[in-house]
Amino acid sequence: METLTRSGSAIELLYKIEQLSKQAARGLPQRLDIKEAWSGIGFRIGSVNLVAPLTQVNELIHYPKLTLVPGTKKWVKGIANIRGTLLPIMDLQGFLGKTSVSVSAKTRVMVIKHGDLAVGLVVDEVLGLTHFSEENQVTAVAQFDESLRNFIQGAFHQDGVETLIFSMHALAGHPDFFKVAV
C-alpha cells in the first residue's frame, strides 16, 4: 500500500510539473506565409547594373593571368589556367560592341557553363548576391541599351530602382558568342 501512495504522489507531482510547464511555456511559433525570393548575382558593365540568375553563374574569380590567343576577336582576352583547367576569358562589354573593360581592383570574372564548355566573362564589378521578392518582377522594362536586347529577360522594381535580369543562357546560346576567330 505504501508503494501505491508513493506512486500516487509521484504521478500527482508529474501532473503538477506538466501544468506548471504549460503555464510557463511560450506559444509555438506561428506559421507565417513565406514569400518566394528570387536570387541572383548583381554585376556591373560600364554604368549598367544587371543581375544574373544565381543558377546561371558557376563561380566568381579575380581577374587572372592570361595567355593571349592570336587570331581571335579583340573581346577574347585569352586563356587562363584555373586550378588546372583552361578557361577562355571573354570581355562581356567588348562582345556587346562597347569599349572593353578597364581592368581594376574591382574587375571580376563570372564563370558560366554552356554544355561542356566553361567560359569566363570579364565584368567591371560584381555587386554580390541579391534577393528580390517575386512580386517585384516585371516583364515590361524601361528603356535600356539596344546591345543588351537579346539578353534581358525582365527586371525587378524594388526600392525605386529597376534592375535588369541578364540571361547568361541567352548569351551562351547567341550564334556570335562562340565565333571568336577573326
Folded structure, characterized:
- The protein has helices at 2-24, 92-95, 168-173, and strands at residues 37-45, 48-53, 59-62, 76-82, 85-91, 108-114, 117-123, 125-133, 137-138, 152-158, 161-166.
- It contains three helices and eleven strands.
- It is an alpha+beta fold.
- The model is unreliable at 1-5 (pLDDT under 50).
- The chain has a single domain, classed as CheA-289, Domain 4 (OB fold (Dihydrolipoamide Acetyltransferase, E2P), Beta Barrel), CATH 2.40.50.180.
- The strands form two sheets. It has a six-stranded mixed β-sheet with strand order 8-1-2-11-10-9, with no helix packed on it. Strands 3-6-7-5-4 form a five-stranded mixed β-sheet.
- The longest helix is centred in the N-terminal third of the chain and has 23 residues, at 2-24.
- Strand 4 (76-82) and strand 5 (85-91) form a beta hairpin.
SSE order and pairing:
Elements: H1 2-24, E1 37-45, E2 48-53, E3 59-62, E4 76-82, E5 85-91, H2 92-95, E6 108-114, E7 117-123, E8 125-133, E9 137-138, E10 152-158, E11 161-166, H3 168-173
Parallel strand pairs: 2-11, 5-7
Antiparallel strand pairs: 1-2, 1-8, 3-6, 4-5, 6-7, 9-10, 10-11
